[in-house]
Design goal:
The chain has a domain at 77-135. Helix 3 packs antiparallel against helix 4 (111-132). The longest helix has 37 residues, at 33-69. The mean pLDDT is 86. The protein has helices spanning 3-29, 33-69, 81-106, 111-132. By secondary structure, the protein is an all-alpha fold. 1% of the residues are buried.
């Protein structure tokens, strides 16, 4: 390792130790344990998706190693125009579904619901545009 890398590692570890100490002092000594408890409870749904992502990544890595041994790591997709239309249908109906779910459970649509629907639409639209621009 070079001197730059050692210094960068040292600064990273020093920052991590500082961050841990700051959190201990701020939350425990500052008597904010309930805030930590609420934060951990709010992270639970994210943890479920993280576990699913890790499982999916494990299977994908296994498949990639298997395909690399066979000298065929590329994936070739043959999509038809019907697939593109189906993708458009899903892309444009996902925000409507998100708003309908919010309307069903809360009885009204908030600004946050509109932001979530817009974010989902934007992600789906950009992904579909990237995927079909490769043709």
């Amino acid at each position: 390792m070079s001197g730059k890398e050692l210094m960068l590692d040292f600064l990273t570890y020093a920052f991590l130790i500082f961050l841990i100490c700051f959190c201990i002092v701020f939350f425990i000594a500052g008597n904010r344990v309930e805030m930590v408890s609420d934060f951990i409870k709010s992270l639970f749904p994210l943890a479920i998706f993280a576990v699913f992502f890790l499982i999916k990544t494990k299977f994908s890595r296994y498949e990639f190693k298997k395909r690399s041994k066979e000298n065929d790591p590329d994936i070739t997709l043959r999509l038809t125009y019907v697939d593109k239309l189906l993708g458009d249908l899903i892309t444009f109906s996902l925000p409507i579904l998100i708003i309908a779910i919010a309307l069903f459970f809360k009885g009204k649509v908030d600004f946050v619901d509109i932001i979530q629907a817009s974010a989902a639409f934007l992600v789906m639209y950009l992904w579909e545009k990237r995927l079909f621009n490769k043709e």
